[in-house]
Inverse folding.
């Protein structure tokens, strides 16, 4: 593939920006990648492993002369970074972000951008439970969706160019209204994370069952929850605070359904339970058929048939 | 390893019994494996794939002359099977089960057993989301815990012999009080399954977000829930009905914690969220260090670094 942007500036060098650096290099999609991060330690690691062509000390420095700027910091840090870089953005540059929430992020970033910059908010639906500059890898976005949520007045050509970059990184790109994005993600990501954190917290907190027991006997189901409950705490704090409305709406639905199942257990209504548990299998099949998960037992953990890691 | 039982009778030929058959054969732990299942189709498949040495038509027939009988049927079917086989059990035979609940199962089975039979309830903490006679594999129990919950009066020698069989199948065996077992499993298995079913049900039921969107964008977290929510509905209906007290207790704790987090979101209490999300990381580390899960990103789904299956 050919070069799509002459200079890409990555602000924040965690899992997503690091994976973007690897994916952009895999296909030679950028002339140069410049990166920065607030933490000196992160910058030092990024420089040491050669994550970018140049690692610089400030966001203002990083964006100078860049035709694409990617904000890859926690959602709660977007506004201050936008305020810092606003005066330094090159004319006609495209600015995007990778935040998990879109409406709040658009409100936080938008006012700080000069009129001659193209703002194309984005969100790659990919990740792992690992974080930091060493956690990225080029294949993270392959066959995963990246959602772009252009705002009123965004130049369609700028959106198309960013789409080409993401497709070059392996992603399937779709456009979506920001508010609908926040609702969809509240269902597919934010509420599941909150529930997983809660379940792990409950297990950690019980006096009659020790942490050691929870850990030893986790293969019975619990361990599936612990993966997403090990995700970056700062990122997730910011997600819940800034996607408050949609998360609370879905949480309300969740507790309503949970109480109905709880009542079925209490009253011994086996038919209700059986019907509910049957219905949920179809979604799993859909996800596997759509290539968004593996059909191997237990997610194909390890190479279980050979090594017995189950 | 040498033969531990001359004839093992497997009642029910699903994932667990099927995997036991494979694991027993892997090390030659039984002279003969006889199996049966209520469904003629299951019996036909088991016979076709040679799952057992002999597949017979009834449980009464299967247990004749067996020195180990394994009840591997849903918890709600244990009592009727016990009633059927009680009069046909060989003197001095050991009878065990693999039910996910112990107190209720002990109460259901116990009264139907003649005095000259050794009853050693058990529960292998291993499984996948797949079910049926084709789903078993020899390595399912490797490095996984099997809990034995002997009741008052159980001959310690019978328990030891069964322990040796399970260890030969690759399991780590521990003994536990039945009531404590049911509480531990309510935390590590039953409540997580109920919550996963609920979350998938909520997603399936929303009008403003389509199933197709949920499926496409599931990689953002949701898909982890769908695996255990695809487990056998009959098995899980029975688990919740028979481990009612412990499940309701843990569910009560869960909703209490969830409401506290919900309030933190509503009031914008970021510190509460951050502290909670930080605490839950330690449990994940413990599970990985105990060899009960993989540290590979996303459970090592597929071979992501090569094929990009994330």
């Amino acid at each position: 593939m050919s070069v799509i942007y002459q200079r890409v500036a990555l602000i924040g060098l965690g899992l997503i920006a690091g994976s973007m650096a690897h994916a952009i290099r895999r296909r030679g999609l950028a002339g140069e990648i410049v990166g920065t991060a607030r933490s000196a330690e992160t910058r030092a690691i990024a420089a040491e492993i050669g994550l970018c062509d140049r690692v610089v000390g400030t966001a203002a420095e990083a964006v100078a002369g860049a035709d694409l700027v990617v904000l890859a910091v926690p959602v709660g840090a977007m506004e201050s970074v936008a305020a810092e870089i606003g005066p330094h953005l090159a004319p006609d540059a495209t600015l995007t972000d990778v935040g998990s929430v879109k409406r709040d992020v658009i409100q936080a970033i938008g006012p700080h951008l000069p009129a001659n910059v193209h703002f194309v908010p984005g969100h790659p639906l990919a990740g792992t439970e690992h974080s930091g500059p060493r956690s990225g890898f080029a294949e993270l976005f392959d066959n995963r969706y990246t959602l772009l949520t252009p705002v009123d007045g965004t130049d369609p050509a700028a959106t198309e160019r960013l789409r080409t970059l993401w497709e070059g990184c392996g992603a399937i790109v779709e456009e979506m209204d920001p508010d609908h994005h926040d609702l969809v993600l509240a269902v597919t990501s934010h509420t599941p994370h909150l529930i997983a954190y809660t379940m792990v917290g409950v297990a950690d907190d019980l006096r009659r069952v020790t942490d050691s027991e929870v850990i030893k006997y986790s293969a019975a189901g619990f361990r599936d929850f612990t993966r997403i409950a090990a995700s970056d705490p700062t990122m997730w704090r910011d997600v819940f605070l800034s996607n408050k409305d949609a998360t609370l709406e879905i949480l309300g639905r969740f507790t309503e359904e949970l109480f109905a199942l709880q009542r079925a257990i209490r009253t011994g209504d086996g038919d209700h339970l059986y019907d509910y548990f049957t219905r949920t299998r179809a979604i799993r099949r859909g996800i596997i058929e759509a290539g968004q998960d593996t059909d191997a037992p237990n997610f194909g953990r390890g190479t279980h048939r050979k090594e017995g890691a189950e």
Q: What stands out?
A: Residues 180-279 of chain B form a domain with the 6-phosphogluconate dehydrogenase C-terminal fold fold (CATH 1.10.3660.10). The CA atoms of residues 86 and 113 of chain B lie 5 Å apart. The longest strand of chain B covers residues 5-11.
